[in-house]
Amino acid sequence: MASNEELFRKIIAHAKEYGYIFPSSEIYDGLSAVYDYGPFGVELKNNIKEYWWKSMVQYHENIVGLDTAIFMHPTVWKASGHVDAFNDPMIDNKDSKKRYRADVLVEDHILKIEEKIEKEVEKASKRFGDSFDEKMFRETNPRVQENVRKMDEIKQRFYPALECNDLVDVKRLIEELGIVCPVSGSRNWTDVRQFSLMFSTQMGSVNEDASAIFLRPETAQGIFVNFLNVQKSARMKIPFGIAQIGKAFRNEIVARQFLFRMREFEQMEMQYFVRPGEEMKWYQYWKDARMKWHLSLGIPAEKYRFHDHEKLAHYANAAADIEFEFPIGFKELEGIHSRTDFDLGAHQEYSGKKMQYFDQELNESYIPYVVETSIGLDRTFLAVLSQAYREEKLENGSGRVILSLPPRLAPIKAAILPLVKKDGLPEKAREVMDALKYDYRCFYEEKDTIGRRYRRMDALGTPFCLTIDHQTLQDDTVTIRDRDTMLQERISVEEIEEALKEKLAR
Length: 506
Ligand code: ATP
Hints:
The protein is an alpha+beta fold. The chain folds into three domains: 1-72 and 212-403, Bira Bifunctional Protein, Domain 2 (BirA Bifunctional Protein, domain 2), CATH 3.30.930.10; 87-196, no CATH class; 412-504, 3-Layer(aba) Sandwich (Rossmann fold). Helices cover 40% and strands 25% of the residues. The strands form seven sheets. The chain has a seven-stranded mixed sheet with strand order 3-9-10-16-13-12-11. A five-stranded mixed sheet has the order 20-19-21-22-23, with helices on both faces. Strands 5-4-6 form a three-stranded antiparallel sheet. Adenosine-5'-triphosphate (ATP) is lined by residues 218, 250, 252, 261-262, 265, 267, 332-335, 374-376, 378-379.
């Protein structure tokens, strides 16, 4: 079994070789943390978007879609708090010249202590077997207690220091905890500084009255500023939601994790507008609903976990992440935030325009509260891809690489393969292709032996191969081969559409 790092490297190489992901501007040695989606990557990405969009906009009668511009009035980012607070504390190691997020260094340190505790509990659980009382053990074991105390002490100092921007104390804490640079192994750190994550550019001609504007760092603000336009034009009644998929840009400090942390990426966000005081009910509702969505992809439940935030962003009164076990460990995939009336309230203040909703049932006006679900499209892509990648040893001693993608997300649904390039088989295969291609993304291939074509389709993640052979010409049947089991059955050409429909619903 490959180590996680090795596995991650293999997935990245596979994604390039099979036309899923290319580094941006590769002929110029690439652009850091920017990637392009290849012919099969774009299909998988579109399928994920569609799956999310349907689950939000089509299946909920009270959620509508929106597509807002990337450029927005600069005051939007003042009101949202991004101009003043969308920073990350950064620190450099003077020996390795590597840059890190200071908060991540401390959080990783806390995580290590947490792992020690869990190991202790696991060991004891094995030792005591059925009679193990985990709660009592956690409360009384001196080593566990000592580590809990250490963790609490760090948290009690670290979060307030971040909150009041006391970067000197954050640096002191990093030194006191003896945190070393993973590359150089040294403790030779610079001071901690704040770094704005927003990209800015100029609008208008530079010589004239050009004004600085930002590339949006999140899609949510486009929804907030259009809240009343949407509510009135689509006649929405609270509670209702607005969903959007679009690009976001962040000048990330540390961006060396493939699609996980990019400088240009896509978000799928939904803001749900509710009555003040009802936000916790909806926050819980969306936490559950979003986890169900992830599980509906058929990925095992143990790959996901919730992480409830202790340190809340300036706009939130509750927040949780859905974390996924990527090859680089459990990391945030989606955020569910109860954003209160912070955003609409701030836009009302800065724009001077009322952002209130008149609730007919209550006969009163108020600024709605918002519960948001915000998921990274590229991170979802990476989650699906890394979960799907498998290397298998076959019974005959040979091996294969397979992308076991959920059929409904797979870029190509079926490959149409004439067994040989003669005897009228290609012509028959073309007929099958033409009958299917308007409803399903199919792929026709006649080059190479059938075995090699099967392997290539396995590696591309194509769930079904339809092979046209000599028997097809006699009785109008083909074989349909399942990517995961490699089993083949014979079905009549007439039955193909029905069979695909049934299998692709999985
Ligand atoms: P992180 O803590 O990992 O930086 P975040 O908490 O800043 O993420 P949010 O602002 O909540 O992220 O954004 C919502 C979602 O957008 C995240 O859950 C993630 O899936 C995605 N996302 C955020 N930043 C990036 C990025 N640089 N590259 C790819 N996806 C991202």
